[in-house]
Write a structure and sequence with these properties.
- This protein is α/β, with parallel strands linked by helices.
- It contains 16 helices and 29 strands.
- A nine-stranded mixed β-sheet has the order 4-3-13-12-14-15-16-17-18.
- β14, α10 and β15 form a beta-alpha-beta unit.
- α2 packs across α3, α2 crosses α4 and α7 crosses α8.
- The radius of gyration is 24 Å and the shape is globular.
- The N and C termini lie far apart (53 Å).
Length: 573
């Protein structure tokens, strides 16, 4: 699929086309017209929503971190001050602003300042990166500005390295809260009440590129995913409407601001006009303390966040999680027991499937029954359509109910990968469907079951084995806290299944007892694991996904030693 020229146009309300911006993207005027006609795309930008709420409710709370609680009016003034400073530094529309910060309000302010001035925020520089990795990624997209905190991340002096990057025209340091800030060669981030020159007129084009996020990299080198205000807000509008969010909602994102889940949180908060709380507990406070103190009613995170929160609640003997009524879980398959425990506590679990490329496009609804919430990721939200294609032939649609690769298209979809024509083209099938790399099947009611990553598929003697199914069943065992199934090479069969677990508590379940549990839970004898290993922890991405390729590499290198196991149907365990 070819990229559009940088001089492509979009149709305005008067039928005249206007320039969208200098970034090569997949934006297509005919598709855009359909999205506008359906209401999936609209005329407001992220910044325009901030401005609207600030004018209507300037004293209502909008954004909270561990030390600040900003009203909509304060949020707008701080955003405008930063926008003015970036403009004074000579940044032009379409240039990138990279952010390497812990969870704090400055990241969100930078995001909105980029939307205001037509810059592109690059927020996905994770804590796990070193200073050298961060500067390499930022310079690789030719970022014009960098916002960073001294001492953040996995080591190194980011400011010393930034001096060598010729594309940086502004480097800001954000003072750390928990230690004295060392001297750095960078200017201070504008203060909330700083005097600033008048910013330029706002760029109110919702089709400009505003967001460049690196993929989490579970399968290789991260790619730079591009989104416009409209492709982001289409997702936020659909979710806020379906889940009836409003100004009274208090939305807490446990996911870091460097992860796309937090971007989905920001979208919804701007659409609903509600307070967004970032995961920045005061020093000494636990995540559960922060949740209770903020009065959160809607919490977003990955399944690991959910499991940890439930563990903390059980340890304190709490039945309720304060005022929480909805708990969003995405980013990895959700153990059924976790979703069910939320339901048992009177909290509606929101089972989500999506990617940085297409947001949280698939989700359960408040009206769904327990089986749908626990077993599936629900249906596609407004603005997206999902179909299943044959795993070995992405151009051929799978039969109803057949497992295959998940494809999608619609107004929430990425507008391509930054500076990567080949990756953009290869992500679509011949009919223009974005191929996710994930395997799933659609039920008769349209709800989607996730079977795992296509690259994680284990092929044993020609039989396809889906790791997510094994992991789901393993997680139902009371002695298993985490589970991951991955392939180990086999000379005769090609691959066999290794089941790795993190035990619940100090004692690990016996391998044969775990196999018996899997069989009793319905696992086919042909899908049984033939290797087993118990670990204290799994290697994870910055967003909490298990790095199965690293588990497989550890096994190949002899750094972990899976033991052979064999299930014998007649003799039992």
């Amino acid at each position: 699929m070819a990229l559009r020229s940088p001089l492509y146009q979009r149709e305005g309300q008067n039928g005249i086309f206007a320039l969208v911006g200098p970034i090569l993207t997949l934006h297509d005027p005919a598709a855009a017209r359909r999205h506008y006609e359906s209401g999936v795309w609209q005329s407001e930008t992220l910044y325009a929503l901030l401005r609207r709420h600030a004018l209507a409710r300037p004293d209502a709370f909008a954004l909270r971190d561990g030390v600040r609680r900003l009203t909509w009016g304060e949020f707008l003034r701080w955003t405008d001050a930063l926008a003015a400073d970036l403009h004074a530094a000579g940044l032009r529309a379409g240039e990138r602003v990279s952010v390497w910060l812990p969870n704090r309000a400055e990241t969100v302010v930078t995001f909105l300042a980029c939307s205001r001035n037509g810059y592109i925020i690059n927020p996905s520089l994770h804590r796990a990166y070193s200073a050298a990795e961060t500067v390499a990624l930022a310079s690789g997209i030719r970022a014009a500005a960098l916002v960073a905190e001294p001492g953040f991340g996995a080591g190194g002096d980011v400011f010393a390295l930034a001096r060598e990057v010729s594309s940086f025209r502004r480097v800001y340091h954000v003072a750390p809260r928990k230690a004295a800030a060392p001297p750095v060669d960078a200017g201070p981030f504008p203060a909330p009440d700083a005097a600033a020159p008048a910013p330029p007129p706002a760029d109110d084009n919702p089709d400009k590129i505003v967001y460049l996020a690196f993929t989490s990299g579970t399968t290789g080198k991260p790619k730079g995913v591009l989104h416009s205000d409209n492709t982001l807000l289409a997702n936020g509008r659909a979710m806020a409407a379906d889940w009836k969010l409003d100004a009274a909602t208090v939305l807490l994102s446990l996911s870091p601001l460097s992860h796309h889940i937090a971007t989905v949180a920001l979208e919804q908060a701007l659409v609903a006009g509600c307070e967004l709380v970032v995961n920045d507990p005061p020093q000494g406070a636990a995540a559960l303390d922060w949740l209770l103190a903020t009065g959160a009613t809607y919490v977003m995170g990955v399944p690991t966040h959910a499991m940890d929160m439930l563990d903390a609640a059980r340890a304190r003997g709490l039945q309720k999680l304060g005022a929480v009524g909805i708990f969003y879980m995405a980013g990895a398959p959700i153990p059924r027991e976790t979703a069910q425990e939320f339901l048992d506590r009177g909290i509606t679990a929101q089972n989500i499937y999506g990617m940085t490329e297409n947001g949280s496009h698939q989700y359960t609804l408040p009206s769904d029954d327990a089986a749908t919430i626990v077993e599936t990721c629900g249906r596609a939200g407004k603005g997206y359509e999902v179909r299943i294609f044959k795993a070995d032939d992405p151009d051929t649609e799978a039969a109803p109910g057949e497992a295959g690769e998940i494809g999608g298209k619609g107004g929430v979809l990425t507008l391509g990968y930054f500076d990567d024509q080949l990756a953009t083209e290869s992500s679509f099938n011949r009919s223009g469907w974005f191929m996710s790399g994930d395997l799933g099947r659609l039920r008769e009611n349209g709800c989607l079951e996730i079977l795992g990553r296509k690259k994680d598929l284990i092929i044993r003697g020609g039989r396809n084995i889906y790791p997510a199914h094994i992991e789901d069943l393993a997680m139902r065992h009371e002695g298993v806290a985490r589970a991951a199934a991955f392939a180990v090479p086999d000379r005769r069969l090609g691959e066999k299944v290794c089941l790795a677990i993190v035990p619940q508590g100090t004692a690990s379940p016996q391998p044969m007892a775990l196999l018996a549990h899997l069989r009793e839970s319905g696992l086919s004898i042909y899908d049984m694991p033939e290797y087993f290993v118990a670990l204290s922890e799994f290697p994870l991405t910055a967003s909490g996904k298990v790095l199965k390729r690293e588990l497989a590499q550890l096994a190949r290198d002899g750094k972990i030693a899976p033991e052979p196991i064999e299930w014998r149907e007649r003799k039992g365990a």
